[in-house]
Amino acid sequence: MTRTTPPRPADVAAVFPRLGPLARTATRLHPRPGSPSRQDSSVGGPLLWPSAEPWPHCDGTHWAPDVLPATSPADVRLLREIRSAATSRPPEDRFYTPDERAVVERINAGHPCPAGPVALLPVAQLYVREVPGLRPPGGADLLQVLWCPFDHPGETMPRTELFWRSAAAVGGVLTTPPEPAAMQHRGYLPEPCLLSPEQITEYPLTVELEPDLCEEIEAWSVRQKAGALPGSAYEGMEEMYYDRELAVSPGWKVGGWAPWSFTDPTTQHCRVCDSPMEPMLTIASREHKTGIGSWTPLEDQAAAASSPDAVPPDPTTPTQVTIGDAYNQQIYACPASPEHPHTALVQ
Ligand SMILES: [Zn+2]
Ligand SMILES: [Zn+2]
Questions:
Q1: Which CA distances in Å does 67 have to 25, 110, 151?
Q2: Terminal C-alpha separation, the chain
Q3: Which ligand is located closest to the Cα atom of residue 338?
Q4: Residues near ion ligand 1 (Cβ under 5 Å)
Q5: What does the domain layout of the chain look like in residue ranges?
Q6: Which intervals of the chain are annotated as region Disordered (predicted)?
Q7: Which of 16, 164, 227, 328 measures 20 to 30 Å from 151, CA to CA?
């Protein structure tokens, strides 16, 4: 099923011509739960991985594994099944059954955390033919993103590894990749999702603009949202209209601008050639925010309106990935060479 971002509520490049040269194309991925194959672009799906190539493992130091009881991918899947079964029942039957409660209590009690290297988990597989905006190295047409499902000292997001390859050159495929025996955060196991890539236009958030242009845009935003209803998403926040609805799209995407939130914009420089790096892949905890509807795809608007109280599976979190306190993890790549090492920011 395709996903279509509604027409923008205003043509900001016409209202503010200085924004025109700053337009960037982003590809919204629109992940939705499904059963992707190795031949599909996916989030959390099986990877087209050569059987002749070792599966990547992390042998880094893992931060405070006793802060949260470790769990396992199998237990996370089981927990999600139980929650989904419970919430699909009539409201009066949504309490866990005794059998469900016993399983949930066993999972919540934790899981032994074995020493040694940890198998990485698939995060995303993106075929260049389906996801415009990727810049592969010569001969490559497939990007695979994996991560370690533990936090590392001083880091507040999972550590990713990126692999570019030619799908035609894979040959024999690894059919049963190893899984980590334990993992730290349930939100680090992406639910298998199919993608519906869609290209849109983004503009930088006001924090990235010249102060005078930022002021003009905020004043304009206040005028657009004048009379925001008490309790609405814009009450007392009218100046946020451009940032929220016209600048940077929410959710998983390739390219575009950065969704800066709690940190000031800082340019990331390539460790090899010092080039300013550019957003490559945004891994999002939420596809959209409640009360801010202009980015919600037309195909999802009825469902979003009919389930105001988010119960699992929450339509705003189709991948069930959570980075920190529902933030975004944005991977940056070097525009000079896709083979230079990537970096990442929590935003
Ligand atoms: Zn690790
Ligand atoms: Zn570089």
A1: 40, 11, 11
A2: 29
A3: 2
A4: 58, 60, 148, 150
A5: 1-30+196-347, 35-61+116-193, 73-110
A6: 1-51, 300-320
A7: 164
